[in-house]
Protein backbone atom coordinates (compact mmCIF):
# COMPACT_ATOMS: atom_id res chain seq x y z
CA UNK A 1 0.00 0.00 0.00
CA UNK A 2 1.25 3.48 -0.89
CA UNK A 3 0.36 6.75 0.78
CA UNK A 4 0.80 10.28 -0.46
CA UNK A 5 1.43 12.71 2.38
CA UNK A 6 2.05 16.42 2.16
CA UNK A 7 4.80 17.92 4.29
CA UNK A 8 2.10 19.93 5.98
CA UNK A 9 0.10 16.89 7.04
CA UNK A 10 3.25 15.23 8.32
CA UNK A 11 2.75 17.14 11.53
CA UNK A 12 -0.58 15.39 12.07
CA UNK A 13 0.93 12.02 11.38
CA UNK A 14 4.07 12.30 13.47
CA UNK A 15 4.24 8.55 14.07
CA UNK A 16 4.38 7.71 10.37
CA UNK A 17 6.79 10.56 9.55
CA UNK A 18 9.07 9.36 12.31
CA UNK A 19 9.18 5.93 10.63
CA UNK A 20 9.82 7.62 7.28
CA UNK A 21 12.82 9.60 8.54
CA UNK A 22 14.25 6.49 10.21
CA UNK A 23 13.75 4.50 6.97
CA UNK A 24 15.58 7.24 5.07
CA UNK A 25 18.46 7.14 7.57
CA UNK A 26 18.66 3.33 7.35
CA UNK A 27 18.70 3.46 3.56
CA UNK A 28 20.70 6.54 2.60
CA UNK A 29 23.15 6.74 5.51
CA UNK A 30 23.57 3.14 6.68
CA UNK A 31 23.03 1.36 3.35
CA UNK A 32 24.28 3.89 0.73
CA UNK A 33 26.84 5.48 3.12
CA UNK A 34 25.77 9.10 2.58
CA UNK A 35 27.80 10.13 5.63
CA UNK A 36 27.02 13.84 5.21
CA UNK A 37 23.38 13.01 6.01
CA UNK A 38 24.13 11.08 9.21
CA UNK A 39 22.12 12.34 12.19
CA UNK A 40 22.68 11.52 15.87
CA UNK A 41 19.00 10.60 16.39
CA UNK A 42 18.93 8.27 13.36
CA UNK A 43 16.31 10.38 11.53
CA UNK A 44 17.43 11.66 8.13
CA UNK A 45 15.81 15.11 7.75
CA UNK A 46 17.17 18.06 5.77
CA UNK A 47 16.25 21.65 4.96
CA UNK A 48 14.13 20.52 2.00
CA UNK A 49 11.67 18.64 4.25
CA UNK A 50 9.32 21.60 4.43
CA UNK A 51 5.50 21.76 4.57
CA UNK A 52 5.64 22.26 0.78
CA UNK A 53 7.06 18.87 -0.17
CA UNK A 54 5.23 15.58 -0.69
CA UNK A 55 6.15 12.12 0.56
CA UNK A 56 5.24 8.95 -1.34
CA UNK A 57 5.45 6.19 1.25
CA UNK A 58 5.23 2.45 0.60
CA UNK A 59 3.96 0.45 3.59
CA UNK A 60 3.89 -3.27 4.28
CA UNK A 61 1.79 -3.69 7.40
CA UNK A 62 3.13 -0.91 9.56
CA UNK A 63 6.64 -0.99 8.09
CA UNK A 64 7.99 1.51 5.57
CA UNK A 65 9.29 -0.45 2.54
CA UNK A 66 9.74 2.30 -0.07
CA UNK A 67 9.92 6.04 -0.28
CA UNK A 68 10.19 9.01 -2.64
CA UNK A 69 10.08 12.74 -1.98
CA UNK A 70 8.68 15.37 -4.32
CA UNK A 71 9.96 18.94 -3.93
CA UNK A 72 8.33 22.01 -5.52
CA UNK A 73 10.62 23.65 -8.10
CA UNK A 74 9.18 27.06 -7.20
CA UNK A 75 11.26 26.83 -4.01
CA UNK A 76 14.86 25.81 -3.33
CA UNK A 77 15.39 22.23 -4.50
CA UNK A 78 18.40 19.99 -5.03
CA UNK A 79 19.13 20.89 -8.66
CA UNK A 80 19.24 24.60 -7.85
CA UNK A 81 20.51 24.64 -4.27
CA UNK A 82 22.53 21.47 -3.64
CA UNK A 83 24.44 20.53 -6.80
CA UNK A 84 23.72 23.05 -9.58
CA UNK A 85 27.08 22.04 -11.11
CA UNK A 86 25.59 18.80 -12.50
CA UNK A 87 23.64 20.94 -14.98
CA UNK A 88 27.00 22.21 -16.35
CA UNK A 89 25.51 25.63 -16.95
CA UNK A 90 22.39 24.36 -18.76
CA UNK A 91 18.96 25.76 -17.87
CA UNK A 92 16.51 23.58 -15.99
CA UNK A 93 12.71 23.82 -16.12
CA UNK A 94 10.76 24.93 -13.07
CA UNK A 95 7.24 26.04 -12.22
CA UNK A 96 4.17 25.18 -10.17
CA UNK A 97 3.51 22.01 -12.20
CA UNK A 98 7.04 20.68 -12.02
CA UNK A 99 8.36 18.93 -8.92
CA UNK A 100 11.70 17.33 -8.23
CA UNK A 101 11.82 13.59 -7.44
CA UNK A 102 14.40 12.94 -4.72
CA UNK A 103 15.33 10.31 -2.11
CA UNK A 104 13.95 7.37 -4.09
CA UNK A 105 14.42 4.19 -2.06
CA UNK A 106 13.22 0.59 -1.80
CA UNK A 107 14.04 -1.45 1.30
CA UNK A 108 17.10 -3.55 0.38
CA UNK A 109 15.60 -6.61 2.06
CA UNK A 110 12.63 -6.44 -0.32
CA UNK A 111 14.87 -6.16 -3.38
CA UNK A 112 17.27 -8.90 -2.39
CA UNK A 113 14.64 -11.43 -1.40
CA UNK A 114 13.56 -12.01 -4.98
CA UNK A 115 15.02 -12.81 -8.35
CA UNK A 116 13.91 -10.63 -11.22
CA UNK A 117 11.46 -7.85 -10.46
CA UNK A 118 10.65 -7.70 -6.74
CA UNK A 119 7.17 -7.00 -5.42
CA UNK A 120 7.88 -3.47 -4.17
CA UNK A 121 10.04 -1.69 -6.79
CA UNK A 122 7.53 -1.71 -9.65
CA UNK A 123 4.58 -0.52 -7.58
CA UNK A 124 6.77 2.11 -5.88
CA UNK A 125 7.65 3.62 -9.28
CA UNK A 126 3.99 3.43 -10.25
CA UNK A 127 2.99 5.20 -7.04
CA UNK A 128 5.22 8.16 -7.92
CA UNK A 129 3.69 8.42 -11.41
CA UNK A 130 0.21 8.26 -9.88
CA UNK A 131 1.13 10.90 -7.28
CA UNK A 132 2.46 13.22 -10.00
CA UNK A 133 -0.77 12.83 -11.98
CA UNK A 134 -2.88 13.32 -8.87
CA UNK A 135 -1.06 16.54 -8.03
CA UNK A 136 -1.73 17.78 -11.56
CA UNK A 137 1.97 17.87 -12.45
CA UNK A 138 3.40 18.02 -15.94
CA UNK A 139 6.57 16.27 -14.99
CA UNK A 140 9.40 15.69 -12.54
CA UNK A 141 13.02 16.73 -12.43
CA UNK A 142 15.21 13.75 -11.63
CA UNK A 143 18.94 13.32 -11.23
CA UNK A 144 19.97 9.73 -11.12
CA UNK A 145 22.23 7.05 -12.57
CA UNK A 146 21.83 6.76 -16.38
CA UNK A 147 20.78 3.11 -15.95
CA UNK A 148 17.70 4.30 -14.05
CA UNK A 149 17.00 6.95 -16.68
CA UNK A 150 16.72 4.15 -19.26
CA UNK A 151 14.25 2.38 -16.99
CA UNK A 152 12.11 5.50 -16.54
CA UNK A 153 11.96 5.77 -20.34
CA UNK A 154 10.78 2.17 -20.61
CA UNK A 155 8.17 2.84 -17.90
CA UNK A 156 6.54 5.42 -20.19
CA UNK A 157 8.00 8.74 -19.04
CA UNK A 158 8.96 11.15 -21.84
CA UNK A 159 12.51 12.04 -20.84
CA UNK A 160 14.33 15.25 -21.80
CA UNK A 161 18.03 15.26 -20.92
CA UNK A 162 19.14 18.50 -19.25
CA UNK A 163 22.89 17.91 -19.50
CA UNK A 164 25.41 15.22 -20.35
CA UNK A 165 25.97 12.46 -17.78
CA UNK A 166 28.71 13.41 -15.33
CA UNK A 167 30.43 12.02 -12.29
CA UNK A 168 29.13 13.13 -8.90
CA UNK A 169 30.51 11.81 -5.64
CA UNK A 170 32.07 8.84 -7.46
CA UNK A 171 28.91 7.82 -9.28
CA UNK A 172 27.55 8.56 -12.75
CA UNK A 173 24.59 10.95 -12.69
CA UNK A 174 22.32 12.35 -15.39
CA UNK A 175 19.90 15.25 -14.77
CA UNK A 176 16.63 14.88 -16.67
CA UNK A 177 13.12 16.26 -16.91
CA UNK A 178 10.66 13.35 -17.03
CA UNK A 179 7.29 14.34 -18.46
CA UNK A 180 4.06 12.49 -17.77
CA UNK A 181 2.27 11.39 -20.92
CA UNK A 182 -1.30 10.08 -21.24
CA UNK A 183 0.21 6.56 -21.32
CA UNK A 184 2.71 6.79 -18.46
CA UNK A 185 0.58 5.24 -15.71
CA UNK A 186 -0.91 2.61 -18.00
CA UNK A 187 2.58 1.60 -19.16
CA UNK A 188 3.67 1.12 -15.52
CA UNK A 189 0.59 -1.01 -14.86
CA UNK A 190 1.22 -3.19 -17.90
CA UNK A 191 4.90 -3.71 -17.13
CA UNK A 192 4.31 -4.51 -13.46
CA UNK A 193 1.01 -6.34 -14.05
CA UNK A 194 -1.03 -4.07 -11.80
CA UNK A 195 -4.79 -4.11 -12.13
CA UNK A 196 -5.43 -0.62 -10.81
CA UNK A 197 -4.23 2.28 -8.74
CA UNK A 198 -1.58 1.52 -6.09
CA UNK A 199 -1.78 4.87 -4.37
CA UNK A 200 -4.24 5.07 -1.53
CA UNK A 201 -5.35 8.64 -1.34
CA UNK A 202 -6.93 9.97 1.77
CA UNK A 203 -8.58 13.30 1.01
CA UNK A 204 -7.71 14.65 4.43
CA UNK A 205 -4.01 14.23 3.78
CA UNK A 206 -3.95 16.65 0.88
CA UNK A 207 -3.90 20.22 2.22
CA UNK A 208 -6.46 22.62 0.86
CA UNK A 209 -3.86 25.06 -0.45
CA UNK A 210 -3.25 22.75 -3.42
CA UNK A 211 -6.34 22.62 -5.61
CA UNK A 212 -6.72 19.03 -6.72
CA UNK A 213 -9.53 17.32 -8.53
CA UNK A 214 -9.85 13.91 -6.99
CA UNK A 215 -9.59 11.41 -8.47
CA UNK A 216 -9.24 12.82 -11.97
CA UNK A 217 -6.21 11.54 -13.76
CA UNK A 218 -4.33 12.59 -16.81
CA UNK A 219 -4.63 9.05 -18.07
CA UNK A 220 -6.75 5.97 -17.66
CA UNK B 1 44.97 36.47 -18.25
CA UNK B 2 45.31 33.22 -20.13
CA UNK B 3 43.43 31.00 -17.69
CA UNK B 4 39.94 32.48 -18.08
CA UNK B 5 40.22 32.17 -21.85
CA UNK B 6 41.12 28.50 -21.58
CA UNK B 7 38.24 27.96 -19.19
CA UNK B 8 35.87 29.60 -21.66
CA UNK B 9 37.20 27.49 -24.49
CA UNK B 10 36.57 24.33 -22.50
CA UNK B 11 33.03 25.43 -21.78
CA UNK B 12 32.57 26.09 -25.48
CA UNK B 13 33.76 22.59 -26.38
CA UNK B 14 31.53 20.98 -23.75
CA UNK B 15 28.45 22.89 -24.84
CA UNK B 16 29.25 22.04 -28.48
CA UNK B 17 29.29 18.31 -27.75
CA UNK B 18 26.18 18.67 -25.64
CA UNK B 19 24.40 20.42 -28.49
CA UNK B 20 25.58 17.85 -31.04
CA UNK B 21 24.38 15.03 -28.76
CA UNK B 22 21.06 16.73 -28.04
CA UNK B 23 20.48 17.22 -31.79
CA UNK B 24 21.11 13.52 -32.47
CA UNK B 25 18.79 12.57 -29.60
CA UNK B 26 16.13 14.89 -30.92
CA UNK B 27 16.21 13.08 -34.27
CA UNK B 28 16.34 9.65 -32.63
CA UNK B 29 13.19 10.49 -30.67
CA UNK B 30 11.43 11.31 -33.93
CA UNK B 31 12.56 8.04 -35.55
CA UNK B 32 9.69 5.66 -36.32
CA UNK B 33 11.44 2.63 -37.81
CA UNK B 34 14.57 0.54 -37.37
CA UNK B 35 15.87 1.96 -40.62
CA UNK B 36 15.59 5.51 -39.30
CA UNK B 37 17.37 4.62 -36.05
CA UNK B 38 20.06 2.88 -38.11
CA UNK B 39 20.43 5.96 -40.31
CA UNK B 40 20.78 8.34 -37.35
CA UNK B 41 23.43 6.16 -35.72
CA UNK B 42 25.31 5.88 -39.02
CA UNK B 43 25.32 9.67 -39.34
CA UNK B 44 26.35 10.15 -35.69
CA UNK B 45 29.41 7.98 -36.40
CA UNK B 46 30.86 10.79 -38.49
CA UNK B 47 30.74 13.11 -35.50
CA UNK B 48 32.04 10.70 -32.86
CA UNK B 49 34.45 8.78 -35.08
CA UNK B 50 33.02 5.26 -34.94
CA UNK B 51 32.54 3.14 -38.08
CA UNK B 52 30.20 0.44 -36.79
CA UNK B 53 27.65 -0.08 -34.02
CA UNK B 54 25.35 -2.69 -32.55
CA UNK B 55 22.24 -2.48 -30.35
CA UNK B 56 21.37 -5.79 -28.75
CA UNK B 57 20.23 -7.79 -25.77
CA UNK B 58 22.44 -10.30 -23.98
CA UNK B 59 21.75 -14.00 -24.51
CA UNK B 60 19.47 -15.59 -21.93
CA UNK B 61 20.37 -19.14 -22.99
CA UNK B 62 23.44 -21.00 -24.23
CA UNK B 63 21.95 -21.55 -27.66
CA UNK B 64 21.29 -17.92 -28.56
CA UNK B 65 23.73 -16.30 -30.96
CA UNK B 66 24.34 -12.76 -32.14
CA UNK B 67 21.62 -12.82 -34.80
CA UNK B 68 19.05 -13.84 -32.15
CA UNK B 69 20.06 -11.02 -29.84
CA UNK B 70 20.85 -8.11 -32.18
CA UNK B 71 18.09 -5.48 -32.29
CA UNK B 72 19.69 -3.09 -34.77
CA UNK B 73 23.02 -4.00 -36.33
CA UNK B 74 25.51 -1.68 -37.91
CA UNK B 75 28.32 -4.27 -37.73
CA UNK B 76 30.07 -5.35 -40.93
CA UNK B 77 27.76 -8.17 -42.15
CA UNK B 78 30.65 -10.66 -42.61
CA UNK B 79 31.71 -10.09 -39.01
CA UNK B 80 28.11 -10.51 -37.74
CA UNK B 81 27.83 -13.82 -39.60
CA UNK B 82 31.16 -15.15 -38.38
CA UNK B 83 30.48 -13.94 -34.82
CA UNK B 84 27.07 -15.65 -34.84
CA UNK B 85 28.17 -18.94 -36.39
CA UNK B 86 31.11 -19.32 -34.03
CA UNK B 87 29.07 -18.45 -30.92
CA UNK B 88 31.39 -15.56 -29.99
CA UNK B 89 28.59 -13.96 -27.97
CA UNK B 90 29.46 -16.46 -25.23
CA UNK B 91 33.20 -15.73 -25.24
CA UNK B 92 33.34 -12.00 -25.99
CA UNK B 93 34.95 -10.19 -23.02
CA UNK B 94 32.93 -7.05 -23.88
CA UNK B 95 29.69 -9.02 -23.41
CA UNK B 96 30.98 -10.43 -20.11
CA UNK B 97 31.89 -6.97 -18.91
CA UNK B 98 28.34 -5.71 -19.61
CA UNK B 99 27.06 -8.23 -17.05
CA UNK B 100 29.34 -6.82 -14.37
CA UNK B 101 29.07 -3.06 -14.72
CA UNK B 102 26.49 -0.30 -15.04
CA UNK B 103 28.98 2.25 -16.41
CA UNK B 104 30.18 2.64 -20.01
CA UNK B 105 33.64 1.26 -20.79
CA UNK B 106 36.21 1.02 -23.59
CA UNK B 107 36.63 -2.39 -25.21
CA UNK B 108 40.28 -2.38 -24.21
CA UNK B 109 39.15 -2.21 -20.57
CA UNK B 110 37.07 -5.38 -20.87
CA UNK B 111 39.36 -7.82 -19.08
CA UNK B 112 40.01 -11.48 -19.83
CA UNK B 113 42.49 -13.99 -18.44
CA UNK B 114 45.76 -14.30 -20.36
CA UNK B 115 45.07 -17.99 -20.92
CA UNK B 116 41.56 -17.36 -22.26
CA UNK B 117 42.27 -18.07 -25.94
CA UNK B 118 38.65 -17.88 -27.05
CA UNK B 119 38.23 -14.37 -25.63
CA UNK B 120 41.53 -13.29 -27.21
CA UNK B 121 40.42 -14.73 -30.56
CA UNK B 122 37.20 -12.65 -30.57
CA UNK B 123 39.12 -9.44 -29.94
CA UNK B 124 41.83 -10.33 -32.50
CA UNK B 125 39.42 -11.31 -35.25
CA UNK B 126 37.42 -8.10 -34.70
CA UNK B 127 40.58 -6.27 -35.84
CA UNK B 128 40.43 -8.14 -39.15
CA UNK B 129 37.14 -6.32 -39.71
CA UNK B 130 38.66 -2.93 -38.80
CA UNK B 131 37.14 -3.00 -35.31
CA UNK B 132 40.23 -2.11 -33.28
CA UNK B 133 38.77 0.14 -30.61
CA UNK B 134 35.34 0.38 -29.14
CA UNK B 135 33.09 1.92 -26.54
CA UNK B 136 30.23 0.05 -24.92
CA UNK B 137 27.22 1.29 -22.93
CA UNK B 138 25.58 -1.36 -20.70
CA UNK B 139 21.88 -1.57 -19.76
CA UNK B 140 20.42 -3.48 -16.82
CA UNK B 141 16.68 -3.83 -16.44
CA UNK B 142 14.70 -4.18 -13.25
CA UNK B 143 14.00 -7.84 -14.11
CA UNK B 144 17.71 -8.59 -14.33
CA UNK B 145 18.06 -8.74 -18.12
CA UNK B 146 21.04 -6.99 -19.70
CA UNK B 147 21.60 -5.25 -23.00
CA UNK B 148 24.20 -3.03 -24.61
CA UNK B 149 25.02 -0.54 -27.32
CA UNK B 150 28.54 -0.96 -28.71
CA UNK B 151 30.42 1.43 -31.00
CA UNK B 152 33.55 0.28 -32.83
CA UNK B 153 36.04 1.55 -35.32
CA UNK B 154 39.49 1.48 -36.79
CA UNK B 155 40.61 4.31 -34.52
CA UNK B 156 38.14 5.46 -31.92
CA UNK B 157 39.51 8.02 -29.52
CA UNK B 158 36.89 9.77 -27.42
CA UNK B 159 37.38 12.66 -25.00
CA UNK B 160 35.57 12.40 -21.66
CA UNK B 161 32.90 14.78 -22.95
CA UNK B 162 32.48 12.78 -26.14
CA UNK B 163 32.07 9.63 -24.06
CA UNK B 164 29.35 11.38 -22.05
CA UNK B 165 27.66 12.53 -25.27
CA UNK B 166 27.83 9.08 -26.84
CA UNK B 167 26.53 7.55 -23.60
CA UNK B 168 23.45 9.74 -23.87
CA UNK B 169 23.02 8.91 -27.57
CA UNK B 170 23.20 5.18 -26.67
CA UNK B 171 20.46 5.57 -24.04
CA UNK B 172 18.06 7.08 -26.55
CA UNK B 173 19.06 4.68 -29.32
CA UNK B 174 18.32 1.71 -27.03
CA UNK B 175 15.00 3.19 -25.92
CA UNK B 176 13.92 3.75 -29.51
CA UNK B 177 15.20 0.36 -30.68
CA UNK B 178 13.06 -1.28 -27.99
CA UNK B 179 10.02 0.81 -28.87
CA UNK B 180 10.16 0.03 -32.59
CA UNK B 181 10.81 -3.69 -31.91
CA UNK B 182 7.77 -3.82 -29.62
CA UNK B 183 5.64 -2.00 -32.17
CA UNK B 184 6.72 -4.53 -34.78
CA UNK B 185 5.89 -7.56 -32.66
CA UNK B 186 2.55 -6.01 -31.70
CA UNK B 187 1.84 -5.47 -35.39
CA UNK B 188 2.61 -9.11 -36.16
CA UNK B 189 0.41 -10.25 -33.27
CA UNK B 190 -2.45 -8.10 -34.45
CA UNK B 191 -2.26 -9.58 -37.93
CA UNK B 192 -1.93 -13.14 -36.71
CA UNK B 193 -4.61 -12.59 -34.07
CA UNK B 194 -2.70 -14.85 -31.62
CA UNK B 195 -3.54 -17.94 -33.68
CA UNK B 196 -1.51 -21.03 -32.80
CA UNK B 197 0.43 -22.96 -35.45
CA UNK B 198 -2.06 -25.84 -35.17
CA UNK B 199 -5.03 -23.53 -35.66
CA UNK B 200 -3.42 -22.02 -38.77
CA UNK B 201 -2.72 -25.52 -40.09
CA UNK B 202 -6.33 -26.62 -39.62
CA UNK B 203 -7.55 -23.45 -41.35
CA UNK B 204 -5.26 -24.13 -44.31
CA UNK B 205 -6.64 -27.65 -44.80
CA UNK B 206 -10.16 -26.36 -44.36
CA UNK B 207 -9.52 -23.73 -47.05
CA UNK B 208 -8.24 -26.54 -49.27
CA UNK B 209 -11.65 -28.20 -49.01
CA UNK B 210 -10.78 -30.83 -46.44
CA UNK B 211 -13.33 -31.83 -43.82
CA UNK B 212 -12.48 -32.04 -40.15
CA UNK B 213 -12.17 -35.82 -40.55
CA UNK B 214 -9.81 -35.46 -43.57
CA UNK B 215 -7.70 -32.98 -41.64
CA UNK B 216 -7.60 -35.25 -38.62
CA UNK B 217 -6.17 -38.04 -40.80
CA UNK B 218 -3.56 -35.70 -42.34
CA UNK B 219 -2.42 -34.27 -39.03
CA UNK B 220 -2.78 -37.54 -37.11
CA UNK B 221 -4.99 -35.98 -34.46
CA UNK B 222 -8.63 -36.65 -33.59
CA UNK B 223 -11.46 -35.04 -35.60
CA UNK B 224 -12.74 -33.62 -32.34
CA UNK B 225 -9.41 -31.81 -31.79
CA UNK B 226 -9.55 -30.40 -35.33
CA UNK B 227 -13.06 -29.07 -34.62
CA UNK B 228 -11.76 -27.49 -31.42
CA UNK B 229 -8.86 -25.81 -33.24
CA UNK B 230 -11.20 -24.42 -35.90
CA UNK B 231 -13.69 -23.17 -33.30
CA UNK B 232 -10.90 -21.47 -31.39
CA UNK B 233 -9.51 -19.87 -34.59
CA UNK B 234 -13.02 -18.69 -35.43
CA UNK B 235 -13.37 -17.00 -32.02
CA UNK B 236 -9.97 -15.30 -32.34
CA UNK B 237 -10.85 -14.01 -35.80
CA UNK B 238 -14.28 -12.79 -34.63
CA UNK B 239 -15.91 -14.99 -37.25
CA UNK B 240 -19.36 -16.54 -36.92
CA UNK B 241 -18.69 -19.64 -39.01
CA UNK B 242 -15.98 -21.57 -40.84
CA UNK B 243 -16.46 -19.80 -44.16
CA UNK B 244 -15.99 -16.41 -42.53
CA UNK B 245 -12.97 -17.72 -40.58
CA UNK B 246 -11.25 -18.71 -43.80
CA UNK B 247 -12.17 -15.46 -45.52
CA UNK B 248 -10.83 -13.44 -42.59
CA UNK B 249 -7.63 -15.50 -42.32
CA UNK B 250 -6.99 -14.96 -46.03
CA UNK B 251 -7.74 -11.27 -45.82
CA UNK B 252 -5.17 -10.89 -43.03
CA UNK B 253 -2.64 -12.95 -44.92
CA UNK B 254 -2.49 -15.68 -42.26
CA UNK B 255 -3.23 -18.26 -44.93
CA UNK B 256 -2.84 -17.86 -48.68
Automatic annotation (TrEMBL), chain A:
- Protein's name in the database: Acyl-homoserine-lactone synthase
Where does the source fall among the domains of life? Bacteria
Q: Which Pfam families match?
A: Autoind_synth
Gene3D superfamilies reported in the protein's UniProt record: 3.40.630.30
Q: InterPro entries, from UniProt?
A: Acyl_CoA_acyltransferase, Autoind_synthase
Q: What is its EC number?
A: 2.3.1.184
Q: What taxonomic classification does the UniProt entry list for its organism?
A: Bacteria, Pseudomonadati, Pseudomonadota, Alphaproteobacteria, Hyphomicrobiales
From the UniProt record, list the reaction(s) this protein catalyses: a fatty acyl-[ACP] + S-adenosyl-L-methionine = an N-acyl-L-homoserine lactone + S-methyl-5'-thioadenosine + holo-[ACP] + H(+)
- Which species does this protein come from? Methylobacterium planeticum
Q: What class of enzyme is it?
A: transferase
